[in-house]
Amino acid sequence: MRRLNLIRGLGIACTILYAACIVWLYATAPRTIAEVATGASVAAGTYEIDQQRFDAARALFRREQFAAARDEWQRADPAQRDARTQFYIAYAFYREGWGRVYSDDALFRAGLEAADRALSLSPDKTLIVNDAELGLKSAAELKAEMEQGLARSWGDLNPLKVLRERK
Where are the domains of the chain? Predict the structure, then answer.
């Protein structure tokens, strides 16, 4: 009798574990086995970005190949869980969308989403990146700059706007 209760208990535990796995798969909706592994590492707290891809993306960014750099950063951080990587993605959107006469609204909106992700992932909701080649050091500054680029005002008609510098 005791053995029968043990077998029933193990059966119930296995059924609950199996149901939890199915619910997790439906909730995360991974498309590949690699995404399943990434989701599992995030859940376990062992998630890390691919540093080689991150460095390759920074090299592309410095050569002003912003779309390629964003793609590489997204491969380096597939779960979008690293604040610094999301900051650089937002900065790439900013640099590509910035214009002397007008800014690309679609790129600035995508950059705002990435900046918001960077701020939300930062432990104290302020993210400062120490990179000498960047004009904007914090995610809040970057976000404010893109919001200003999206805002419409009479200052947009100022011909001296052509002389401003990209940060």
Answer: 2-44, 51-163
Q: What confidence tens digit (pLDDT) does each residue in 13-34 have?
A: 888 888 877 776 666 666 565 5
**CATH code, 51-163:** 1.25.40.10
Per-residue HEC secondary structure of the chain comes to: CHHHHHHHHHHHHHHHHHHHHHHHHHHHCCCCHHHHHHHHHHHHCCCCCCHHHHHHHHHHHHCCCHHHHHHHHHHHCCCCCCHHHHHHHHHHHHHHHCCCCCCCHHHHHHHHHHHHHHHHHCCCCCCECCCCCCCCCEHHHHHHHHHHHHCCCHHHHCHHHHHCCCC
